[in-house]
Specification:
- This protein is mainly alpha-helical.
- The protein has helices spanning about 10-20, 25-35, 50-60, 65-70, 90-100.
- The protein has 2 domains: about 10-70, no CATH class; about 70-105, no CATH class.
- It contains 5 helices and no strands.
- Helix 2 (about 25-35) crosses helix 3 (about 50-60).
- The mean pLDDT is about 85.
Length: about 110
């Protein structure tokens, strides 16, 4: 297919991105440990050393496999719940339900019912 362009990350980078996106307050300690152990410029593949991150997670008491693969129920507290957002958690829960039913999302500016 000539008109298709694929961009991808290596597996370790994708796993770290997933970890960072699903992490809770404990992740702050892991980030600090990784930094203290030499994690720098990790977006550049030649500097990325995933073993530093996995060791930091172990030291911080984070089960990487569980965090990456466990189901995330919509009523569970989210890491950003303390931040006031325009739509609020009810909107996010409604959108989650719609996605589970393969329904089209509402515009964020549409009134919710």
């Amino acid at each position: 297919m000539r008109s298709v362009e694929l961009k991808y990350h290596d597996l370790e980078t994708s796993l770290l991105e997933g970890l960072l996106s699903r992490g809770d307050r404990r992740l702050g300690r892991a980030i600090e440990i990784a930094w203290r152990n030499g994690a720098r410029l990790d977006n550049w593949s030649e500097h990325f050393r995933p073993e530093i991150w996995w060791d930091a997670c172990r030291q911080a008491g984070i089960d990487v496999e569980l965090l990456l693969h466990e189901p995330y129920p919509p009523d569970r507290p989210l890491p950003w719940d303390h931040i006031t957002i325009r739509q609020g958690k009810a909107y996010l829960q409604m959108e989650f339900q719609r996605a589970q039913q393969a329904q089209t999302s509402l515009s964020p500016t549409s009134p919710t019912t």
